[in-house]
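Re: How this chain folds, sequence and tokenised backbone to follow
How to read it: Take the token row as a discrete description of the fold.
Start of record: The labelled sequence and token lines come straight after this line.
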Amino acid sequence: MDNGALTSDEPYKGNKRTTRNGKCLIIVQASGRPGELILGAKAEGLRHGETRIRIRS
């Protein structure tokens, strides 16, 4: 994950990230197994958002 902030010391790999100007980039690495990827986002004052992506082998 990345937010474009050059001064951020947050790790690229993880399960949460602070946004910069409300934006964040997510890069997903495949494991080679089929299944479902669930990607969610939440922020104070906003509704939780979620998308599901089906992964095929």
